[in-house]
Amino acid sequence: MSVHPIQRIDVLVNPTSGQGKGARVAAEAVPLLQRSGLIVRVRQGRDADEAGELARTAAHEADALVVVGGDGLVQLAADALAGTDTPLGIVPAGTGNDAARHLSIDRKRVRSAVNTIIAGRTRRIDLAHAFGRHITTVIASGFDSAVNERANRMRWPRGPMRYNVATVAELMGFEPLRFTLELDGEVRELEAMLVAVGNGPSFGGGLRICEGAEIDDGLLDVAIIHPIGKAELVRSYPRLFTGSLVNHPRYERMQVRRVSLAAAGVVAYGDGERLGALPMTVEVRPGALRVFAPVS
């Protein structure tokens, strides 16, 4: 960990993150940054494309980029800053905030997250790269991505309850999927409920599907949930929050630098965002992103 001197920063805000939490958090965070003596330029994209362009501009014009939002906005920033020396600061304001969780950034107290940036201590972390994008947390394909696809098609109910309804509906007819995996050159064909590729341990607001994954070890963690009955899948779900699913006999985890996945009709999600339909190849980009982080 090193201290990175900063004077001029761009703050990129997603005001709709966390059902409006982004705007409220930004209103608290920006004055704190300004009172510390930093020169702050606040930016807000009208859509993902414009937000990405603003992040790329910050990589060249600012000493640092700070995002106020969730994992989707962090992913846009990671795309813009990957391979540069411009550090990324995170003030969590999303629903899941798993990138902040991986970095031990305070997800509840805005002042604490801002102080992490003001302190200027940075570290380098790995990124996963797939579909031309950089992922900070987990790429999931299988049952979880099917739930996301169903929820995105639904108009009711609104908010988190939509995903609960989608989970129940998807579970009714879900069957194990046939995957072809290539793991650092070794090909495997198998049936699975879910295959996840983790740069870090969790996704979806603390679901520790890749428990044990480190964000700076130069490796990807591949987690497989082999076929299990629907009742057992429901019973096992709470174990994702504790990381104890790794002890389930139908769970498998391995570490690789490159993995390719193929499965018919399956879509992948990364950092909570839709990436695209399989097949896909995921590679690790060691130390690709500099981030502000608390002293460990």
Automatic annotation (TrEMBL):
InterPro entries: ATP-NAD_kinase_N, Diacylglycerol/lipid_kinase, Diacylglycerol_kinase_cat_dom, Lipid_Phosphate_FormReg, NAD/diacylglycerol_kinase_sf, YegS/DAGK_C
Xref: Pfam families: DAGK_cat, YegS_C
SUPFAM superfamilies registered for this protein in UniProt: NAD kinase/diacylglycerol kinase-like
One cellular-component annotation, GO: plasma membrane
Annotated DAGKc domain residues: 4-134
Cofactor: Mg(2+)
Any one Gene Ontology BP term: phospholipid biosynthetic process
Example GO molecular function: ATP-dependent diacylglycerol kinase activity
Keywords, ordered alphabetically: ATP-binding, Kinase, Lipid biosynthesis, Lipid metabolism, Magnesium, Metal-binding, Nucleotide-binding, Phospholipid biosynthesis, Phospholipid metabolism, Transferase
Domain of life, source organism: Bacteria
Family: Belongs to the diacylglycerol/lipid kinase family.
NCBIfam families registered for this protein in UniProt: YegS/Rv2252/BmrU family lipid kinase
Protein name: YegS/Rv2252/BmrU family lipid kinase
Source species of the chain: Solicola gregarius
